[in-house]
Amino acid sequence: MPGFHRRRVEERWMELALRGDVTAEELRALTPQGAPTFDIVNQMIENAVGVFSLPLGLGLNLTVNGRDHLVPMVVEEPSVVAAVSFAAKLVREAGGFTADADASMMIGQVQLTRYGKPEVARSRVLAGREQILTLANSFHPALEQRGGGARDVQVRILPAPEGPHGEPVFVVHLLVDTQEAMGANLINTMAEGIAPLIEQLTGGRVFARILSNLADQRLARASCRIPLEALADFGLPGEDIAEGILQTSRFAEADPYRAATHNKGVMNGIDAVAIATGQDWRAIEAGAHAYACRHGRYGPLSRWTLEQGHLVGRIELPLALGLVGGPIKIHPGAQLGLKLLHVDNVRQLAMVFAAVGLAQNFAAVRALGSVGIQKGHMALHARCVAVTAGARGVDVERVALLLVERGNVKVDTAREILASFQEVPAP
Ligand code: NDP
């Protein structure tokens, strides 16, 4: 959609409607008047007093496994949407992202205490595996009919946090294929439902039973290959930009202080599309950061290497997403977001999320390893500063341009520039 960012908002709507992505009726949900009614938000949370709006933008140019996706993104931070669209365009010209995702296997946890000998309790739980699975599935028979349901029972015995004299922490994992749902509610029902049986089998006492947000049986992966010559920019050859990206990637692998910021960039993209499609982004965040620590030290979710004259990026992270459940069928914006994204099933949704995370990361490491991120970021940030200083309409762009030109993107400077406009009227 060339030139989309230069069009007026009404022209953007028209383009979406002409392409058949959404109807005029649905577009109304994008306006403040189309925001969820108070009745809807009052059903969603407690003590509701209003509706809080955030900008919704479209990430463009994303091709995943040969299929094009418009990416709805809800985010308050300037440059996120532009960064995804820019990176996705470069990758698209190089053949697009390749991605895959696991089945929707989630983990329910049941903590058993006062169980006596750990090995005896373990063998009793495992001997009752079929009984536990049958009971778990009885709480969600429709899920089994859809091809999902409880699939396995595992036992983990972990060192007591108090030291060798404490009772080892005994955890039963119930593995459940949640199909097209994120699965938190349905797993919690199953975990609570099987607890009395586990107590009966072992003679122990169950306290906590809930899903785990470390959804490491439900990973999504995306990768891209960009020829070095396509990376040339800022007057620098592609090899130079690639080296900056490689060094920045190594930096994140070696240093958790950098890895945290590296992953924040990844999540800039993933959270934005998660909010726009009604996902539980706290669950996604928790899973992503826990997974980033899986080797015992916090590390980057994505990595960049050089392979046969190409820059290759790879990302892998847990993505517990849903096309049903939660607020998805209630919130009109989430329904519209999913429609724009154009996915057939939840695994495809996870692949798009992974590609968005990698695209966002590419834009960040490319800028970081070359001219720095402030150059691009400040141009967009300057508009917010101009608005904060009181600029409106055409003045926003005029003030923003002057702020960047002066290299001083501050509210006080914006106020001075604005005051100078009032002395000299706009041409
Ligand atoms: P819901 O319970 O809202 O919806 C899932 C239900 O959708 C299923 O139980 C199933 O019910 C129905 N369904 C219809 N079609 C399908 C299909 N094709 N595949 C699977 N299910 C289908 O949501 P979830 O269980 O997904 O839970 C997600 C919500 O839980 C989110 O809102 C999240 O914020 C919240 N949550 C998160 C927690 C966490 O992350 N720690 C903790 C607690 C809650 P049926 O079989 O009866 O038709």
Descriptive account of the structure:
The chain has 427 residues and is α+β, with helices and mostly antiparallel strands. 48% of the residues lie in helices and 19% in strands. It contains 16 helices and ten strands. Strands 3-8-10-9 form a four-stranded antiparallel β-sheet. Strands 5-6-4-7 form a four-stranded antiparallel β-sheet. Strand 9 and strand 10 form a beta hairpin. Helix 14 (374-388) crosses helix 15. The model has no long low-confidence stretch (mean pLDDT 94). NADPH dihydro-nicotinamide-adenine-dinucleotide phosphate is lined by residues 140, 142-143, 146, 178-186, 188, 211, 213, 280, 283, 322, 324-326.
Task: Annotate the secondary structure layout.
Elements (H helix, E strand, L loop, with lengths): L8 H11 L4 H4 L10 H7 L11 E9 L2 E8 L5 H14 L4 E4 L3 E9 L4 H10 L1 H10 L2 H5 L3 E10 L10 E9 L6 H19 L2 E7 L7 E9 L10 H17 L1 H21 L4 H12 L9 E6 L2 E9 L13 H10 L4 H23 L5 H15 L5 H13 L4 H13 L4
Antiparallel strand pairs: 1-2, 3-8, 4-6, 4-7, 5-6, 8-10, 9-10
Helix pairs in contact: 4-13, 6-8, 9-10, 9-13, 10-11, 10-13, 14-15, 15-16
The protein binds NADPH dihydro-nicotinamide-adenine-dinucleotide phosphate (NDP).
NADPH dihydro-nicotinamide-adenine-dinucleotide phosphate (NDP) binds next to helix 7 and helix 8.
